[in-house]
Amino acid sequence: MSYVGLVGLGVMGENLALNIASRGFQVSVYNRTREKTERFVQRLPRGSAIVPTYSLEEFVSSLERPRRVILMVKAGRPVDDILDGLAPLLGEGDVVFDCGNSFFRDTERRQEWLARRGITFMGVGVSGGEEGALKGPSVMVGGAPSGFEESRAMWEAIAARVDNEPCAGYMGLRGAGHFVKMTHNGIEYALLQLIAESYDIMTRGLGMSVEDAAQVFREWRDSELGSYLLEITVDALSVVDEETGKPLVELVMDRAEQKGTGKWTSQTAMDVGVPVPNIDAAVSARIMSSLKEQRVNAARLYGGVRTRIEGDRRELLELLRPAYSLAAITSYAQGLALISEASREYGYGTKMLDVVKVWRGGCIIRAKLLHTIIGAYEREPGLVNILFDDEIAGLARELEPSLRELLRRVKTAHIPTPVMDAALNYITSLRRERLPAHVIQALRDRFGAHEYERVDKPGRFHSSWRPGS
Ligand SMILES: NC(=O)c1ccc[n+]([C@@H]2O[C@H](COP(=O)([O-])OP(=O)(O)OC[C@H]3O[C@@H](n4cnc5c(N)ncnc54)[C@H](OP(=O)(O)O)[C@@H]3O)[C@@H](O)[C@H]2O)c1
Q: Structurally, how many domains does the chain consist of?
């Protein structure tokens, strides 16, 4: 009998199954399309702990009780399709782990439905792409605590390890696992856009070659800015197209695609009332990039694009590095503030220290900065925003003038920097005790009688806002 079953042999499912089996847990696999299972098992070495099955009945009856089932299928309708087939075959005490990028509200709906049949449904965020799934992902488990405890040994065995600790953890009740993974992806959107903006400043703005830009990213990678995304940036920029001899990255169409997790993060942040402007800007930037035809037309209509930034290259690069650093810090700050507030509002009971600990290894947004953030949550577990930690505040104060000066210079050219701009506005707004929102309140009261509060006395007030009245 198998310890666990896995449905869905896409790239993630195949690699996760191989990882689980390599850790000594026998795993049964099933895929809707039979040929995929056949091709997968043909490639397996003899004696592998992977058992192919070709119907859901065969799959379920090959599992130890209580049964553990992992779903690794496309998010959305496919998860419901599979559950429609599986639920009648499962029963009291069985646990289903949805490891795809499902929307956390869908997860909560499924949890309620399956709980009525005695089945525990867990929403699990798995990050690290196909390589992570195979060698050690970051695993964010949410749902009933018993559902995590019961198979904790397996999650900890297959996850990445940092400082001898597994990057697998319990993120909280109900949809918390998928919520944390969604926000992880939102931060990932902001960081990817930030790298693209830095590349644009260096190449179009400062006229540097791709090789020279790669060298700057290499220096950042080897410094306190080091991160997985910088590692793969250095690699990617060094790849040359065999056909043309040009850097391959320059031959890639400038239309960024998306699968929805960034958009969900922005939408949810609006619902919860937490500003995540870096993430919003990154989602909008992807949408703008997808409007290629409109951009081509506008380029013709407006003409005169000048991308070269005036000034000394070395000086600008010295500003770019701290600017990048602060934009990255604020991206994590916004995502973490969202998780923290959502946990409070939705009653997830998420421990922020556990979130940042599972992000240290295996996942796409792993970075040296997370060690500083861990220190902040160790000092104050209930921190509302990491920018309120003394050490991080000191760092942000030091970096801010460079971001401001860089953007002042960049704005002399046609170089869009939506995430860097959002980062500067975020920190500038956060540190302003008084914002111009009083003007908005006055106008809302004028046209909609929405009332306003005063700074000098308590209560709600209404005025006509007409001169002389
Ligand atoms: N790729 C990544 O780097 C990554 C990273 C983290 C998380 N994820 C998430 O992990 C999940 C799996 O991703 P993936 O990239 O491996 O592949 P995918 O293309 O998202 O999903 C492929 C799997 O879904 C199955 N499937 C699709 N529609 C189905 C349906 N209606 N009923 C039953 N099965 C159906 C496919 O079965 P057939 O073979 O029969 O079509 C196949 O096994 C997704 O939720 C994805 O968002 C992916």
A: 3
